[in-house]
Structures are given as C-alpha cells and as structure tokens.
C-alpha cells in the first residue's frame, strides 16, 4: 500500500472501533503496523493527529473518542483530523497543476535533460511557495478588516527598511498594495504569533508551536529556492501537504 492507502485504511479502522466495531488482536496488530509506518514517514511527521501519536493501542484510541460524545461527533472528529493527511490532488491542488500545464518549457531544450527535469520540478516548488505565502497574506489582510492587529516592532522595522530601499531603486516594481507584501514567511508568522489571541482560533488546537514549525520548514525551502539550490522530493511532498493544510484550515 502507498501512504494514501495506509491513511485511508487507518481512518476506516479507527472509525469502526470508535463506533462500536469489536477490537481483536488482528486489528490491534494492523493498527500498530500502520501507526508505526505513518509516524515515521517524513512528510507526515508534522501533521499526524496527536491522538495517533499518544494512543499506542486501539483501546487507547477508543477511550479518547468516547470523550467526543456519540457516534456522529466521533465520526466527524475523525474526518476532521484525517483531512490534512489525505492527498486529494484533484481538489485543492488543481489550480497549481493547471498553471504547471500551461508553462512552456520548450526554450529549455538546449540544456541537458537532467537540468531540464530539475527545472520543471523547481518551477513547481516556486508555485507552491508563492501560493502558500500569498495565502497567508490574504488571510491576515482579511482578519485585519475586523480585528485590531499589532505589527511587532522588528517586523515593522523590516517593512520600513525594504520600503526605503524600494524608494532608492525606482526602476523596480512596487511589491504590492499594502505592507504585508514586504513580509516573507518569517515576518508573516511573527505577525500571527504576536497576535495569537486573534489568530490562534484558526489553527489546530490553537497550537502556536505547530504554526512555528510549519513556518520554519517553509522558510528553509524558500531559502533554497532563493539561492537556486535544488529542492528534493521529500521537501516537495511536504510543500503539497502544507498547501493542503493551509487552504483547508484557513478556509481559503
């Protein structure tokens, strides 16, 4: 089974035992194996639901789900925590794939085949980073329409410095129509964490650490792209997962 099939199987198994399906040794063995494999998968480490991390057995998981109420709330909760894990590219990722298909790589034909292929892969990385970073900007901008947001001093200093530099280089196009366009992943993250009383409710379990880890991973990939370094498959897979989480969690 591939990762998606394992995730689907685990979801079915956990839904069953959480809604009165009996637990036996075969199911416990299967849960133990699936749990071990998925928790050790690099692209899933950051987003595996905490219930799976802390529940070593199906009995443990059932007890956790009993706290959620009746069968319907349990099913809803399991659907919610599994949603980010399922790689449904035909939905949220369609827009990026459409863009990729419209890119003409014909002018790269003079380059060696391996450089051409890596160029295509890196164009995908840039698209995901661009969409994720701008999703954060749009999200923060929307929240600012109804909430008072304080910009941390260090972030404001960075914005002012970039705006001054832009004034001195008038041949360069303006970054955007508001200060958020002068912020990268790190600054955008600092704005959200610095106003966690406002933004926390939009994130899983209001977990500030979860956001910081994701921002840090995204920034590392962004730095690789900025220096024209190659981004490997694991990092590209992580980007797709992050994009899926962000667009679903922030209801983009």
Instruction: Estimate the helix proportion, in percent.
Output: 55-70%
Mean pLDDT: 81
Number of strands: 0
Morphology call: flat
The main β sheet shows up as:
none
Helical segment tally?
Answer: 12
Rg result: 21 Å
> What's the SSE pattern?
HHHHHHHHHHHH
Low-confidence stretches: 88-92
The span between the termini is 31 Å
Query: What portion of the residues fall into strands of 2 or more residues?
Result: under 5%
Based on helices, strands and strand pairing, what is the structural class? Answer: mainly alpha
What do you see in this structure?
This protein is mostly helical and 252 residues long. The chain is built from 12 helices and no strands. The two termini are 31 Å apart.
Features:
12 helices; 0% strand; 252 residues; mainly alpha
In summary, what is this structure?
The protein has helices at about 5-20, 25-40, 50-55, 60-65, 70-80, 95-100, 115-145, 155-170, 185-195, 195-200, 210-225, 235-250. With about 250 residues, it is mainly alpha-helical.
Topology of helices and strands:
Elements lengths: L2 H16 L6 H15 L10 H5 L3 H9 L4 H12 L11 H9 L10 H32 L8 H16 L16 H10 L1 H4 L8 H19 L6 H17 L3
């Amino acid at each position: 089974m591939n990762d998606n099939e394992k995730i689907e199987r685990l979801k079915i198994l956990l839904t069953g035992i959480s809604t009165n399906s009996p637990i036996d040794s075969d199911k416990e063995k299967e849960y133990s194996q699936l749990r071990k494999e998925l928790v050790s998968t690099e692209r899933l480490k950051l987003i595996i639901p905490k219930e799976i991390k802390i529940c070593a057995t199906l009995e443990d998981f059932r007890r956790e789900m009993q706290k959620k109420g009746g069968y319907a709330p349990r099913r809803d909760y399991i659907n919610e925590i599994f949603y980010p894990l399922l790689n449904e590219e035909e939905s949220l990722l369609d827009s990026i794939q459409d863009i990729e298909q419209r890119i003409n790589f014909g002018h790269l034909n003079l380059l060696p085949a391996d450089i051409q292929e890596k160029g295509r892969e890196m164009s995908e990385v840039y698209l995901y980073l661009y969409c994720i970073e701008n999703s954060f900007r749009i999200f923060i901008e929307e929240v600012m329409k109804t909430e008072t947001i304080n910009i941390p001093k260090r972030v404001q200093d960075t914005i002012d410095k970039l705006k001054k530099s832009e004034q001195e280089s008038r041949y360069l196009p303006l970054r955007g129509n508001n200060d958020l366009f002068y912020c990268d992943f790190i600054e955008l993250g600092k704005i959200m964490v610095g106003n966690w009383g406002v933004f926390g409710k939009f994130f899983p379990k209001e977990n500030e650490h979860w956001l910081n880890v994701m921002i840090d991973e995204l920034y590392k990939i962004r730095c690789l792209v900025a220096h024209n370094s190659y981004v490997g498959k694991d990092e590209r897979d992580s980007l797709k997962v992050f994009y899926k989480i962000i667009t679903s969690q922030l209801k983009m």
